[in-house]
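Q: What does the assembled structure look like for these inputs?
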Amino acid sequence: MSDVEKRSAPVPADWTYAPAPESRDVVTIRESYDLFIGGEWVAPRSGERFATTSPATEEHLAEVAQAGPEDVADAIAAARQAFGPWAALPGSERAKYLFRIARILQERAREFAVLESIDGGKPIKESRDVDIPLAAAHFFYYAGWADKLEYAFPNRTPRPLGVAGQIIPWNFPMLMLAWKIAPALATGNTVVLKPAETTPLTALLFCDVLRQAELPPGVVNIITGDGRTGAAIVDGDVDKIAFTGSTDVGKAIQRRLAGTGKRLTLELGGKAANIIFDDAALDQAVEGIVNGIYFNQGHVCCAGSRLFVQESIYEPTIEKLKKRMATLRVGDPLDKNTDVGAINSRMQLEKITELVQSGRDEGAEIYQPPCVLPEKGYWFAPTVFTNVAQSYRIAQEEIFGPVLSVLTFRTPEEAIEKANNTPYGLSAGVWTEKGSRILWMAERLRAGVVWANTYNRFDPASPFGGYKESGFGREGGLHGLQGYVDLSA
Amino acid sequence: MSRLPIKKTYKLYIGGAFPRSESGRTYEAQGQNVAQGSRKDARDAVVAARAAQPKWAGATAYNRGQVLYRIAEMMEARLDELAELATGRDEVEKAIDRFVWYAGFADKLAQALGSSNPVSGPYFNFTVPEPTGVVAIVAPEEPPLLGLVSRIAPAIVGGNTVVAIASEQQPLAAIELAEVLATSDLPGGVVNILTGFRAEIAPWLASHMDVNAIDVTGAEGIRAELEVAAADNVKRVVSGAIDGQSVYEISAFLELKTVWHPIGV
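A:
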């Protein structure tokens, strides 16, 4: 075969790799975890506990505490008590704690990455190269702001809000923790954070980091639990709620906070358009499409889940996409070769399965590359739907799984109209070699993040957050400070 | 023979026109019969505001600044009339100066609120402020003119369009302002002013799915109710200064868009 033929030859379905599992030895999982309140491990007064399992194997990992209303009140009280002294510390000293945390995270990165993959099912490649390094980078970034807030808010004396209640999702547990805690501490707030119930372990390991860093007790309190715990935080004596999660829960929180004067930032769902023009560098665009929807099993609020292909290049694009999909390796999250890991929970798998069935029922055409899914655990093959109408549920609702819906367009105006035809507005992608068109599109897309000729890039210096029902407030960058300061002085 | 004066019919201001309330209702305020806006009027106003929004946002910042300044010019010419309907000259002068201050901010917003972000990698990354869209404003009950202007000006300078509910007890200054707006260069529909009972009209705006933000600064007593309704489409809820001005009053009505592009050859 010539080189060209070799490159374009389809990949055989049985093209297996030798397993290359990352060692689990770096991680010690305790049998049971208490709540981290006031710098101490405290048994839940509720007396309730629940199990966290590995979604890849369904093995039982540990028991974690279900924080009840009294536990939540204790955590908030601890944060309230720590607030005065913490806010009074010079910014330069607060910065040092954050720098310490960043450094310890870097040093213990392997341990965190492996634990993240065990508890959440994401490929080690991602937790090792994306989640944990970015989490450390966020602490490093906001450390530097702590004593420079007067540059961020000219002519103002930014003051901390007080106690921030923070509720984070299961798709990027450590990264979301960093997005929440780093700016809150840099601005002098104290924190009560609740990790998601299916992925509590890295947040609990992070408590060790806080102790190592000698962070004053109570500045960060980490409590585990389900939605009831979250609701108790929202209702508790906090000054601010920061929530990342579904739009439905976000709306419920907004309603619950109505009239209370508590500050709120929401980072909610998305149904991003990834738009491919006929002059795009197609191979790069296909990489961007794959990264956009199959990264982290599609458990990404900014996932490029609606693909808009200009009609004239529809066929070659789909052909290349399917070929590329066939090379995705689905399986053991701890295997360094794995591209697509386990679905985070049985509940999420059921939701994906239901929506995919609706796609079939409504008349879309499904394609899944041949791949062998492990017998145990929660898995879903990378999926693409063609022949999708705008009205289909798979083109409207957030699936939060490795499922792509393909639609087409003819003109840039049509692409904009279709892309914006959603209640969401978190992110969007544009692929074209024409610079003026990129800016024209970027200007008209109603989304908080626009990736042009790239997708799913994240950086602590870059603000992230949505338009419309994808939420309000920004995380990251200078703008990420604003959700944690009172500028009235 | 002495001349019989012409009396004014106080009407709503929607889409650049002065309709009566479709409900046909009026109520008495400041000794006059004033249009009592209805749910349908509120919806018409949102339609007008939505229709006007893309063009207003698409105007150059320099142009928007000039339009706001022109409003100040027109207000200055009607200073006496406005003073009579509001609490006096001092309030009107402050309101005029408010428009002037915001006029000058139109073409500085992107610099003051945007950024170029130093990301780790070969990417050009920048953040720009953009209007959130249609903003509903429950204007403060008093001062009737300055309160309204202090909420409208920061909303429209950034490219939003507005549906405002005027002071319930003292709506006449707001209607006079509407006449100023109608004779300025502000395109019809950019600012729409409703008079009537705020407790009746405001909830329709708070729950309206085509309104992007609601300003509850003047929503004393019905704030919680409005905030609950606002969650239906995750509206931005704004509470700002009644007599004050700052870039943050503007940014409360803005979204931030971040754009990434690789750097390469």
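Chain B has one domain: 26-262.
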